[in-house]
Specification:
- The structure holds three protein chains of three kinds.
- Chain A is an alpha+beta fold.
- Chain A folds into two domains: about 190 residues, D-Maltodextrin-Binding Protein, domain 2, CATH 3.40.190; about 230 residues, Dipeptide-binding Protein, Domain 3 (Dipeptide-binding Protein, domain 3, Roll), CATH 3.10.105.
- Chain A is built from 15 helices and 21 strands.
- In chain A, helix 8 runs antiparallel to helix 10 and helix 14 runs antiparallel to helix 15.
- The longest helix of chain A is centred in the last third of the chain and has 17 residues.
- Chain B is mostly helical.
- By secondary structure, chain C is an all-alpha fold.
- Chain C is built from 13 helices and two strands, in the order αααααααββαααααα.
- In chain C, strands 1-2 form a two-stranded antiparallel sheet.
- In chain C, helix 6 crosses helix 8.
- The longest helix of chain C has about 40 residues.
- The radius of gyration of chain C is 24 Å and the shape is globular.
- The two termini of chain C are about 15 Å apart.
- The chains are: A alpha+beta, B mainly alpha, C mainly alpha.
- Chains A and C meet through helix 1, helix 5, helix 6 and helix 12 of A and helix 2, helix 3, helix 8 and helix 11 of C.
Chain lengths: ~525, ~300, ~325
């Protein structure tokens, strides 16, 4: 019995060893994270959207720096304050051959609230009031109030055929039965945490992919992903950790691609009258909240040596940040000065504010949420200790950090924020605007920051449909918030891809997506 | 209340017993060596502030310029980093000794608390018998059959990160061993005449439990306790490694190893190897001591 | 016997009930999964809708009874991350874990039993002492640390084996397993060795203890007096005699190995149920956590029940004592 099993085992090994090597037209990508489901309306998770983009198209697409470009919609214009017109692409067919029309878009928008999960896609349809199909290729979207950022929201609006039906279950998507999109690839198979296999769709409306078959393999462990590339199991990987990036630069068998990401590590000092965790001087709780004093916040900022953060702590994989979004994003202000490191001035400010000997403060960060968060956290604590502060730094897991942060239990925090939509309304509206549940602003403003001047500028911006006018207002609002140190941005994280040397062309993207159809063979 | 004295079995004086114990114990040189190692490690970790050049918890003493020095290199502080430095410029030897102290504190505290809880449950079950005994021991047995790491993992996830939380998680994961041992020994003792005699007198329950039952179940508990302290240290390290234990900013041996693990592909193996060696030596040494103590006090092995 | 069985069964039911309440309350205490999962840009309204949708606004006892009600209808809930039923999620991960456990148990047996036999046969030899010392190591050195050393040695420095993950899967007879491919074996061998060390230590000690006892037993002395060669005594008689307790203990240990694999699976990134539970803890996938833990409790209650029943059959005195 055992002997028999052994023999079959050996036979199987021999068979496998004889298997032909992978075809040149196939691409094997090793990714840190994959989708959680094949239903494109299930979750907002970045790795989910990234994977499903291969099978489904969105109404609006974004380029490498997150600026809008046509997707299934070729143009979009506001008709009045609460109506957007979308003109759709003609001649597009789904993988099963049915033509794509406005009905499919309407169906997709209406399907989202029915099926979306705990990472809700309704986020991207929250401004939609009604969807009106004018003709097969024209849509009018009535919005709840003015919604200048609607096209940005629709960059995550995946379109499924209206034949899918409202009661299509997640299992039917995972099995491939309902996994029918208009995207560049047809769905072949997928296992949770395993491989997503897709094959080229030859009738794709855009540029057809260079790869016949693409396998997106999920390898969550950083070291294992690097090892898989080095051993040739995969052709390209994403999220190369900083430690390996250094050694890869000296490795001629590998190419690396580096890009700024949308993620910035921001410090959020609580400016409430009563700080959640007491700030102490000589073990005694101080009167009031020192962080309310702008001089204190400026001192904290001045004491941060961003060059050290980038070059030493992150081993070169970062860029100093002076505002909450990277350059080129809608609402990025060129007027905000480059942050400087000046410990003497910081000490002076602190003395002026009445804390010549510093104070003791709790500082809580996320751990392992993005690369480098915990080490940056520790480094910041260390830098502030040069200022005379006693910083009790803690880097906690998401399961601990996020619920407590939502209950606003921390005095000062640091976490990463990514401007997923590429424009200021998303970021400043959630982080800096005064908390206003009714308008949906300030949902992630956990520090109690409230500045009428900022709110006014931002509010005006969000009511301006004219693009240039809106951009100006957002830029001014950013300037106010940053001058006020509502949040203190530290570094923009960078992401790294690596591939076998000399074989692939690839333009890295700020949103960190690894799109197989954007990878082309060299030469 | 009438005070009735109950005759307990005659015992040797403490000093005599201890001397006997030691002469039996030292027959294994390995065990003696293990004991010496543990003593050294405990002294070194608790005396760390006087022994090592740096307080790794005091961020003001760290310098980023010293990050990732190899073992033996000299840093900006002017002293040699015998075991190198980590990504924050922290002297690894200092970090390990401070981390070892955290590990000892957690292990011993958890051990003692689990001992107390286990004794209470075991004695209660053995003394009262019946339904209470059945239910309590059922749960204890169930827990014993599960791997402690799974329990500790779930508990740690429920309680959050931090020293008190980890200690509590370990206590919950480990009390069952003490409860089982106490119950086993106490059930045997209970049937002996002297306890029966005591029970027939109006002595308060508490007194019978603690004055008469407890001393007789103590020896096997000491063995269990030794092993459990080692296992608590190892469990804590495992939890920190899995990411639900102590945060990196509050290093124990486990979180040091876990942090170092990220760098093994980049050739910076000293970050995880050295704390690992300390962890291994500590745990193995405690287990060896426990083994020998068991051999010495187990009646089946006595001369 | 029937009365005893009923008694034990009802006790088991009570224990499962108590544990399920503890698990449910404990997982509840970790926090609101919505706060961990929700996208930063979500509005308060979206958040509240979700909380209602998942019934997280209901009082705890009501949530618990909904859960229990569903369990009785065979529905263990749906994963909040994968949106598929917990049952199919667990069963899709089970083959990987079973594979790993089987290989590691084989390794532990193939090395552990001969080593234990030898250590018991010649307890005073240097080799026996060495074996026992190694068994202490297997017992006490933390699994994750050994796993790390293995990775450092064989994957990083020597580059012989992959550092983690499961290999190529292929059809073998009627099921799919990575053990049918060479790549699969290259992936499984390190984690399996890692997982086997603890069991091996246990195996060595059990076998040695049995061997030592048997060597002093009447029948062995008799056989020796008869002039039978030692080889024949050991393999023909002793091994047969001591194999029953070893097999029993080992069968029971299989269950705990399944659950214990969590550490090894994490270190080697092995996509089994252990990794699943760690992932769901870190993502706060509440339905998966609760259902998985309740399944584990059930598994162990059943194992304990089986042990009790076997013992009760073997030793009628147990029945009298424990049947209360």
């Amino acid at each position: 019995m055992l002997k028999h099993a052994l023999q079959s085992g050996i036979a199987a090994i021999a068979l496998l060893a004889a298997a032909p090597s992978v075809m040149a037209q196939d691409l094997m990508i090793g990714l840190r994270a994959g989708p959680d489901s094949i239903d494109p309306h299930w979750s907002t998770l970045g790795s989910q959207a990234e994977a499903l983009r291969h099978v489904f198209d969105t109404l609006v697409d974004v380029d490498e720096t997150l600026q809008l470009k046509p997707g299934l919609a070729v143009s979009w214009t506001p008709l009045d304050n609460t109506t957007w017109e979308f003109k759709l692409r003609e001649g597009v067919t789904f993988h099963d051959g049915t033509p794509f029309t406005a009905e499919d878009v309407k169906f997709s928008i209406e399907r989202i609230p029915e099926v979306t999960g705990p990472m809700p896609m309704t986020l991207y349809t929250k401004y939609v009031d009604t969807v009106e199909v004018v003709d097969d290729f024209t849509l009018h979207i009535k919005t709840k109030g003015m919604a200048p950022s609607l096209p940005n929201d629709f960059t995550r609006l995946f379109v499924v055929p209206s034949e899918t039906g409202m009661d299509a279950r997640n299992e039917e998507f995972n099995s491939g039965e309902k996994a029918i999109g208009t995207g560049p690839y047809k769905f072949v198979s997928w296992q949770p945490k395993g491989d997503l296999v897709v094959e080229r769709y030859d009738d794709y409306w855009g540029e057809t992919s260079a790869w016949e078959k693409v396998t997106r393999r999920e390898i969550p462990d950083d070291a294992a992903r690097v090892a898989a590339l080095k051993s040739g199991q995969v052709d390209l990987i994403n999220y190369v950790p900083a430690t390996d990036y250094l050694s890869m630069q000296g490795d001629s068998s590998l190419d690396t691609f580096v890009s700024d990401s949308i993620y910035i590590l921001n410090i959020a000092p609580s400016v409430k009258d009563e700080e959640p965790q007491p700030i102490k001087v000589n073990g005694k709780e101080v009167e009031g909240n020192p962080l309310q004093d702008l001089r204190v916040r400026k001192a904290l900022d001045l004491a941060i040596n961003r060059d050290v953060l980038v070059n030493v702590v992150l081993e070169g994989l970062g860029t100093p940040a002076n505002q909450l979004m990277p350059e080129g994003f809608f609402g990025y202000s060129a007027n905000i000065p480059t942050p400087e490191y000046n410990i003497d001035e910081a000490k002076e400010l602190l003395t002026e504010a009445g804390y010549p000997d510093g104070f003791e403060i709790d500082f809580t960060c996320t751990n392992n949420r993005v690369p480098g968060d915990a080490v940056v956290c520790e480094a910041l604590a260390q830098m502030w200790s040069r200022l005379g502060l006693t910083v009790n730094a803690q880097a906690l897991n998401g399961t601990v950090y996020f619920p407590a942060a939502a209950r606003e239990e921390y005095t000062m925090t640091m976490s990463a924020w990514g401007t997923l939509t590429g424009e200021a309304a998303y970021t400043y509206g959630a982080l800096v605007h005064t908390k206003d549940a009714e308008k949906g602003f300030g949902n992630f403003n956990r520090s109690g920051y409230s500045n009428p001047e900022f709110d006014k500028l931002f509010g005006e911006g969000s009511q301006t449909l004219d693009e240039e006018g809106r951009r100006k207002l957002y830029e001014q609002a950013s300037e106010v918030a940053m001058e006020d140190r509502a949040l203190i941005p530290t570094v923009i994280l960078q992401s790294v891809w690596a591939a076998k040397a000399g074989e692939y062309e690839f333009t890295p993207r700020t949103d960190q997506e690894t799109r197989a159809y954007a990878i082309t063979p060299k030469g | 209340m009438v005070d009735v004295t109950v005759q307990t079995p005659p015992v040797e004086t403490r000093a005599v017993r201890l001397r006997h114990f030691w002469s039996d114990y030292r027959r294994s040189w390995v065990a003696v060596l293990a004991l010496a190692i543990i003593t050294t490690l405990v002294l070194a970790s608790f005396g760390a502030p006087f022994l090592v050049p740096q307080n790794p918890y005091d961020l003001a003493q760290l310098d980023w310029a010293d990050a990732f020095l190899r073992p033996g290199q000299t840093g900006s502080g002017g002293y040699v980093h015998l075991l190198g430095t980590d990504n924050a410029g922290r002297d690894m030897l200092s970090a390990i000794l401070y981390g070892l102290r955290t590990s000892f504190v957690i292990g011993i505290t958890a051990g003692i608390l689990a001992l107390i809880l286990g004794i209470s449950i075991g004695l209660t079950a053995a003394y009262f018998g019946g339904r209470i005994e059945a239910l309590l021991m059922r749960i204890v047995d169930l827990q014993l059959s599960m791997p402690a790491i799974l329990l500790a993992l779930v508990m740690a996830a429920m309680l959050g990160q931090g020293v008190p939380q980890i200690v509590l998680a370990l206590v919950v994961a480990q009390y069952a061993y003490f409860a089982r041992t106490t119950h086993g020994a106490a059930s045997v003792e209970r049937r002996k005449d002297y306890i029966e005699a005591a029970r027939s007198t109006p002595l308060p329950t508490r007194r019978i439990l603690f004055k008469h039952l407890l001393p007789n179940v103590l020896p096997p508990l000491i063995v269990v306790a030794t092993v459990q302290v080692a296992s608590a240290i190892s469990l804590e390290a495992t939890l920190s490694f899995l990411g639900v234990g102590l945060p990196l900013t509050e290093p124990s041996l486990g979180s040091l190893i876990s942090n170092g693990f990220k760098y093994i592909h980049a050739g910076r193996s000293w970050l995880s190897i050295y704390p690992g060696i300390f962890l291994m030596v500590t745990v193995v040494a405690i287990n060896l001591v426990g083994d020998q103590v068991r051999t010495v006090i187990d009646p089946r092995n006595s001369r | 016997m029937l009365g005893y069985l009923v008694g034990r069964l009802s006790q088991a039911v009570v224990v499962v009930f108590v544990m399920s309440v503890i698990v449910f309350v404990g997982v509840y205490a970790i926090g609101n999964p919505i706060d961990v999962m929700i996208d930063p840009g979500a509005t308060q309204e979206i958040r509240e809708n979700l909380i209602r949708q998942y019934g997280l606004d209901l009082p705890l006892w009501q949530q618990y009874f909904t859960f229990v009600g569903n369990v009785f209808q065979g529905d263990l809930g749906r994963s909040m991350v994968y949106n598929i039923s917990v049952t199919s999620l667990v069963f899709s991960r089970l083959p990987a874990t079973v594979e790993l456990v089987m290989v590691s148990v084989c390794i532990a047996t193939i090395i552990g039993i001969p080593a234990g036999l030898y250590a018991g046969y010649k307890p005073d030899s240097i080799a026996a002492k060495l074996i026992m010392a190694l068994s202490v190591l297997g017992f006490s050195v933390p699994t994750f640390w050994i796993g790390m050393l293995l990775i450092m040695g064989f994957a990083v420095n020597l580059g012989w084996l992959p550092s983690g993950g499961r290999g190529e899967v292929a059809q073998f007879l009627w099921f799919k397993t990575s053990l049918a491919t060479g790549d699969g074996w290259a992936h499984v061998i390190m984690p399996a060795v890692n997982l086997s060390l603890f069991k091996m230590g246990l195996m060595i000690r059990l076998t040695r203890a049995g061997m030592v006892e048997a060597m002093g037993a009447e029948y062995v002395r008799f056989a020796r007096a008869q002039g039978l060669p030692d080889r024949q005594i050991v393999f023909g008689h002793i091994l047969r005699n001591i194999s029953i307790p070893i097999i029993t203990v080992f069968g029971l240990e299989l269950g705990s190995t399944l659950a214990f694999a969590v550490v090894t699976e994490t270190v080697f990134n092995w996509p089994g149920v252990g990794k699943l539970i760690i992932d769901s803890i870190l993502q706060l996938d509440r339905p998966v956590m609760v259902s998985y833990l309740v399944m584990v409790v059930l598994l162990f209650v059943l194992i304990n029940l089986a042990v009790d029943l076997i013992y009760a059959r073997l030793d009628p005195r147990v029945r009298l004592k424990g049947g209360s």
